[in-house]
Amino acid sequence: MNGLAAQFGEAAAVLLGDLALVWSDQMLNTSGISTPSLLAAHVIHDEMRIELMAGQYLDIRESGETTYSADRSLRIARYKSGKYTIERPLHIGAVIGNPSSNSSILDALSRYGLPLGEAFQLRDDLLGIFGDPTVTGKPAGDDLREGKRTVLIAMSLEALSESGRKELLAHLGQPEISPSKIEELRALIISSGAVEKVENLIESLTNQSLTAIEDSSIHLSSREFLTHIALSAVKRSA
C-alpha cells in the first residue's frame, strides 16, 4: 500500500471532486428558491463550471510551457479566480434575487468581478512569497518551493539579468529550498521591480472594479457593500 499511496490519494481526490459537483447540484436543486430563479441560476452555474475546467486546463498546460508569461498567468487568474470566485457567484446571486435581472446589471457585475478576481489572485501571488507565515498559515516562500507560475514570477524573469534569471529558475520548484535561500530569492525578486509592478497592477484592476460598480444602476447599499468586499479582497495579509 505504501508504494501506491500517492496514486490512491490522487484517485480519491478526483472522486471526491466529482462527488462535490453532484452535491453542488443537489444543494441548488433543494434550495427552495423559485422555479424561475432556479432555472436562471442553473444556466450560470453550468457556465461557471465549464469556465473553471477551462481555467484548470490552462493551468495544467502552463506547467508544460518552456517559457514564463505574465499574460498567460493573468489569463489563468481570470478563469480560475475572476470568473469562478467572484463574477459568476455574483451573477447567481443576482438571478436568485431577481430572475429577470437585466443584462446591464449582469454586465456591471462582470466589469466589477473580473478585474477584482485578478487583483485578488495577484495579492495571493505576493503573499505566497512575502506573506507572514504566522498570518497566512503557510510556510514562508511556499510558492517558490512549489514553483508556481505566477504573474509575479513571470514579471521577475522578464526584468532580471541573465544571471538573475538563472538563479531564480535554478531554485523554482525545489521543495527543500532553505530559509536563507528563500530570503535571497525574495531580494532578487524585489530588485527586479516586479513587486512594484504587481502592486501597481493590483491598484489599477481594483480601480477598474470600483469604477464599474460606481457607474452602475445597482442600489446604493449594494454598491457600498461591494466596495467593502473589493477593498477587503486586495488589502489583506492572509
TrEMBL record:
Cofactor: Mg(2+)
GO molecular function: metal ion binding; prenyltransferase activity
Pfam family, one: polyprenyl_synt
UniProt GO BP: isoprenoid biosynthetic process
Keyword terms of this UniProt record: Magnesium, Metal-binding, Transferase
Transmembrane segments: none
Keyword Magnesium annotated: yes
UniProt similarity note: Belongs to the FPP/GGPP synthase family.
Name this protein carries in UniProt: Unannotated protein
Species in which this protein is naturally found: freshwater metagenome
